[in-house]
Amino acid sequence: MTTLEIRDLHVDVAQSDADAEPIHILKGVDLTVSSGETHAIMGPNGSGKSTLSYAIAGHPKYVVTQGSITLDGEDVLEMTVDERARAGLFLAMQYPVEVPGVSMSNFLRTAATAVRGEAPKLRHWVKETKEAMTELDIDPSFAERSVNEGFSGGEKKRHEILQLGLLKPGIAILDETDSGLDVDALRVVSEGVNRYKERENGGVLLITHYTRILRYIHPDHVHVFVNGRIVESGGPELADELEENGYERFTAGVRA
Ligand SMILES: Nc1ncnc2c1ncn2[C@@H]1O[C@H](COP(=O)(O)OP(=O)(O)OP(=O)(O)O)[C@@H](O)[C@H]1O
Ligand SMILES: [Mg+2]
C-alpha cells in the first residue's frame, strides 16, 4: 500500500532569463493518491497540470516554495530524481524526451536495474520485455532503436506504458498519455494501464483533456484544475459535465 500526499503545494518555475523573476504557477494543491485508486485531473491549457507532475518527479526548473509532498510519510522533496523513482514514483511525460545513441533495450534494462536495486537476470529479462512489448503491440525491432528518436507521437506514448509495465512503480503519473493516439492505440495503451493497476495494485494520476480515455480507464475521482489549483473534485460524472459544459463555470473571473 502506497500513498502519495500533496499538501498546499506552491511551485515557481525559473525563467530561462536568469535575471527574470520566477513565475508562480501552482498556488496551493492538495491531493492524495493511494494504491488501487485512479484520479483524473482535467483543466484548461496552461493551468499547471504538467507543472504538478514535474514538481512531483523533481524537475530542477520547478521550485517548491511552500507545502509538502510525501510518499508513505517520507519527504519526497528531500529526494533526488532517481531516489523518487526508486521510492516508487513514475512519470510518463506529456512530451517524452528523445535520447539519441541509447537503445531502448539498454535504457529499459538500466532503468529496471536502478529501480529494482539489482540487474534483472538476462534470460528472465529478455522474456519479460518481449511479453511486455507483445502486450502493447510494439514491434521487436524497436528494442534496438534509440530511445524515442524518430518515434511517432503514438509510438512514444506506447513506450511510456512499456516502461510503466516493466518498472512497476507504486504511483504512476500519466501526463496526457492519451493525446495523439489513434483509436486502436488508445485501447492498447489503456489496457496496459489497466494491467498495471491490476497486477501492481498501482495508484494512477491521469492528466487528460478528453473523456474518451476515461471510458477505458475508470477514474474513482475527477479533479478540475484551474489556475494552479484544484477547484473542484467529484466522481466520474464530473468528467462528463466538463465535456458538456467546458470550464467556464470554474474560470469565470480567473485567468486560467
Ligand atoms: N519552463 C517554463 N518557463 C516558462 N513558463 C513555464 C515553464 N513551465 C511552465 N510554464 C508556464 O506555466 C504555465 C503552466 O504550464 P503547464 O505546462 O503546467 O500547463 P498544463 O496545465 O500542463 O497545460 P496543457 O494542458 O497545455 O498541457 C503555463 O503558462 C506555462 O507557459
Ligand atoms: Mg501539460
From TrEMBL:
Pfam families: ABC_tran. The keyword ATP-binding applies. Keywords: ATP-binding, Nucleotide-binding. Gene3D superfamilies: P-loop containing nucleotide triphosphate hydrolases. SUPFAM superfamilies: P-loop containing nucleoside triphosphate hydrolases. GO terms for molecular function: ATP binding; ATP hydrolysis activity. InterPro entries: AAA+_ATPase (IPR003593), ABC_transporter-like_ATP-bd (IPR003439), FeS-cluster_ATPase_SufC (IPR010230), P-loop_NTPase (IPR027417). PROSITE patterns: ABC_TRANSPORTER_2. The keyword Nucleotide-binding applies. CDD domains: ABC_FeS_Assembly. Residues 4-252 form the ABC transporter domain. Belongs to the ABC transporter superfamily. Ycf16 family. This is Iron-regulated ABC transporter ATPase subunit SufC.
